[in-house]
Amino acid sequence: GEDVEQSLFLSVREGDSSVINCTYTDSSSTYLYWYKQEPGAGLQLLTYIFSNMDMKQDQRLTVLLNKKDKHLSLRIADTQTGDSAIYFCAEGSGAGSYQLTFGKGTKLSVIP
Amino acid sequence: NAGVTQTPKFQVLKTGQSMTLQCAQDMNHEYMSWYRQDPGMGLRLIHYSVGAGITDQGEVPNGYNVSRSTTEDFPLRLLSAAPSQTSVYFCASSYSPGTVEYQQYFGPGTRLTVT
User: Number of residue pairs across A and B with CB atoms under 8 Å?
Assistant: First the structure.
């Protein structure tokens, strides 16, 4: 079955860049997502990338996709304390499949 | 739009009690789903529905029932609560895949403790 793997913890200093990595196994994945969960809250979509793209940039966020290695990364530039949260990688197979498979989440801690 | 709403926010149950977690969305989404989130386990899909009258099991359906009589509502029933069902429950909804707007919108969660 599908599997999505992420490291569980990442700690960075305020102002540095954060890079959160994710690997997935389903080669038919069409959409890949990054969700953010702040303490005590639900998940919010941060950004997504289609599988026919290599990179997507959205203000401080850069998503890189290596389809050959099934590797997805999220880079947050100039990380702020407000970026402290759990970040989930998720993959979906697109048309015909409503379900997303989520990784276990990476807890990002930003040190002031 | 209120988005995806869930009630209650918190609930404590005794083993063997039953209850219903409510979920509603006002975005006319076809797809709705329930997840549970446990420490170190990520999100696991319990049940999902692709439209009114249609439901199906996810990864961890045992001990839970769902129904979808309207597009807006997707309640989750715990039939006989067990301590293993202590978790945070999230409801999510989305349009059909393949549309530009396809993403899952999550509710704020229900924190359930079973003693």
Answer: 55
